[in-house]
Write a structure and sequence with these properties.
2 domains; alpha+beta; 5-stranded mixed sheet; globular; two-stranded antiparallel ribbon; Heat Shock Protein 90; binds adenosine-5'-diphosphate
Length: about 220
């Protein structure tokens, strides 16, 4: 399926790029604008296809988990480093409160970072300029708990569980503006559960949200 979907999409992008490079003759201003839109839509669709395929692979259990003892500080900094520029561009204050430097979780490092980046970029997406986003962690009951908190638009009480289902988005100006796929949280929860963890949310509409990811601590040596 992956090949069948990606190959024609790559061809669309590739031919549009060749035309833009004027390989087959000059391109006028309006044509250039149309080519730009073709490429933009192509990238969007390719992103969507990749995410759907990714989700399908996770759900069918064909994804490999490279489990190791992962220092929590490393996971925090890797994810925060990727999201900090987004937060700055969005006019938000972004704060990371590191926990115990020796703390380690049992996880696939890449997938743990993927969940944290998804939660943090959602927090940035759904919080307007002047708002705050923070990432905090604590160790309790044999697990590390990562709290991603924002002061953004919040989530209505009746949508708190359904946002973890695939393709569910809460209608708002911000979701329209950002063109997400509605798969990020479904993927994040599935990955967290596959690593014996969990993902939950608390939120108040108009006040902000806190997503809490739990990942088991690495067994003591
Ligand atoms: P996407 O971000 O691609 O829309 P997600 O699965 O990551 O998909 O999120 C699903 C929906 O949950 C979002 O469209 C949004 O309505 C809501 N949501 C997620 N994170 C937040 C947040 N931090 N604040 C408010 N709403 C959120």
């Amino acid at each position: 399926m992956s090949h069948e979907l990606r190959t024609p999409l790559n061809a669309i992008g590739g031919y549009a790029e060749l035309l833009e490079m004027e390989i087959r003759g000059p391109v006028n201003h309006d044509q250039r604008e149309y080519l730009r839109r073709i490429q933009q839509s192509q990238r969007h669709l390719l992103g969507l296809v990749n995410e759907v395929l990714n989700y399908a692979r996770i759900e069918t259990g064909t994804v490999h988990y490279d489990m190791a003892d992962v220092p929590v500080v490393e996971a925090l900094h890797a994810a925060a480093g990727m999201v900090a520029p987004l937060a700055r561009a969005g006019g938000l204050r972004f704060h990371v409160q590191a926990c115990d430097a020796d703390l380690q979780v049992r996880a696939d490092a890449e997938k743990l970072r993927q969940i944290l980046v998804n939660l943090l970029s959602n927090a940035v997406k759904f919080t307007g300029p002047g708002g705050r986003v923070s990432l905090r962690c604590e160790a309790r009951d044999g697990s590390a708990w990562f709290h991603v908190r924002d002061t953004g638009m919040g989530i209505p009480a009746d949508k708190l569980e359904s946002i973890f289902e695939p393709f569910v988005q809460v209608r708002s100006d911000l979701t329209r503006e950002h063109e997400g796929t509605g798969l990020g949280l479904a993927i994040s929860r599935s990955i967290a559960q596959a690593m014996d963890g969990s993902l939950a949310v608390e939120s108040r509409k108009g006040r902000g949200s806190t997503f809490t990811l739990r990942i088991p601590l690495a067994p003591a040596p």
